[in-house]
Amino acid sequence: MVPVPSSIRKRQSSHLHVVGACVDVLQFIYKAAWGPAVYQKGPLDRCLRDILTANRRVIATARTYEIARRVRMAEMDVADWLRTLGLEQYAPLFRQNEIDYEVLPELSDADLERLGVPIGHRKRLLRAISALSVAAPAASSPPAVHPQMNASAERRQLTVMFCDLVGSTALSARLDPEDLGAVIGAYHRCVAAVIERAGGFVAKYMGDGVLAYFGYPRADEYDAERAVRAGLALVEAVAGLDTAAGAPLEVRVGIGTGLVVVGDLIGVGAAQEQTVVGETPNLAARLQALAGPGTVVIAPTTRRHIGALFEIEDLGLQALAGFAQPQRVWRIVGESGVLNRFEALRSEATPLVGRDDELEFLLQGRQQTKAGEGRVVLVSGEPGIGKSRLSAALSQSIRGDPHITLRYFCSPHHQDSALHPVIAQLERAAGFTRDDTVDQRLEKLQGLLARGARGEDEIALLSCCHCRIPLPS
């Protein structure tokens, strides 16, 4: 049953009274036109009387429903309700914003987001609010409905991430329960924020473990890559948390990709959730247990989907509990130095078919440019028709001619990063590596820009604003 906000309930009540008023007016008009004796014997009179009777019953039921709802809300405390959900950390926040049981049913996802509640907890709160809002009077309550399989359950490719906090048992023995709750809460909020930014979906919190899906409810071709990037970002973000633990927190992450059945509803009320059935969630959990602190471990299926986008370390065949055959696994070291996604995910060895005319046109433009007539060519088209492959074929064709190639690549994972293609080009041209220190990066950038910059101050400002190098003290 879908909860009805109070604003809609008020409109419905007013509409019911309008219906009654309209029927009264119709009765008056027909009585005046036909006379009371003729009108009261006809079928129209009986029809309008039936409408009035049904309308009064609906109004009475709505009033009883509203009274019962208000009594139920008055008898319960928001802080106690949050405690039953395991979200008691938000009680001061709700109290500060004067959110009581009268206001609770009208809270939306946008309201909770403005309060700073992470997406996973927002989902749990909204489900629980829905369960409260549909509560009817005890006398008219229908019998409890057992969970049923959702008709929207579907078979799909999914990348599953399992993230676990390292050393949580030791923390529980060392910290006061309230301090431990604050640490776990900060960790959960951090994980939810990182996964949401990467396009993932937080499916479940299991103590200090977090289960996340990439490819549900929205899927795209980059799900495995998004999950790996999110795993690397989690390692860094959680380590940077300032908590009562007294030391940097560490996580271990396992990622698997495969076919699952997703969307079945289990549980009731606030405990209701959508499950994923298949081998992939178990594989991700086993890989997480295999990973070391601060590392990300992936399955063979995920490895095939990320190509050469990341630098990886082969951990060989590993025996995993519940799997009959050993599984080959890899550890993600970091992003690779591959220039573009086409090189990382596809092979230039694939022959170019049916593009002779387009390639000849590009080569003619190249000849005109060499003759002193500048040319700009825009290649556009639907995704997957071979634009990148055509550009690669042009580069191969002019490989023997002297020229300078400048490559700028946009990425769906950096759409919120201003000038990312320009920054990436500068970093490649300067020869940055993953292990470079700040001083080494600044020195390389100075060597690259020395001929064009007007001074060291301009280079230092460019380094700070665009290449993420701190200004020297």
Describe the structure.
The chain is of the alpha+beta class and 473 residues long. The protein has four domains: 6-139, DNA polymerase, domain 1; 154-336, Alpha-Beta Plaits; 350-397, no CATH class; 412-466, no CATH class. Helix content is 49%, strand content 14%. It is built from 18 helices and eight strands. It has helices at 6-34, 36-40, 43-75, 78-84, 91-96, 109-114, 119-133, 168-174, 177-197, 223-239, 279-290, 300-306, 341-345, 356-370, 387-397, 420-430, 438-449, 456-466, and strands at residues 154-165, 201-206, 209-214, 251-266, 273-277, 295-298, 310-318, 327-335. Strands 1, 2, 3, 4, 5, 6, 7 and 8 form an eight-stranded mixed β-sheet that branches. A hairpin with a 6-residue loop joins strand 4 and strand 5 (273-277). Helix 9 (177-197) runs antiparallel to helix 10 (223-239).
SSE order and pairing:
Elements: H1 6-34, H2 36-40, H3 43-75, H4 78-84, H5 91-96, H6 109-114, H7 119-133, E1 154-165, H8 168-174, H9 177-197, E2 201-206, E3 209-214, H10 223-239, E4 251-266, E5 273-277, H11 279-290, E6 295-298, H12 300-306, E7 310-318, E8 327-335, H13 341-345, H14 356-370, H15 387-397, H16 420-430, H17 438-449, H18 456-466
Parallel strand pairs: 4-6
Antiparallel strand pairs: 1-3, 1-4, 2-3, 4-5, 6-8, 7-8
Helix pairs in contact: 1-3, 9-10, 14-15, 16-17, 17-18
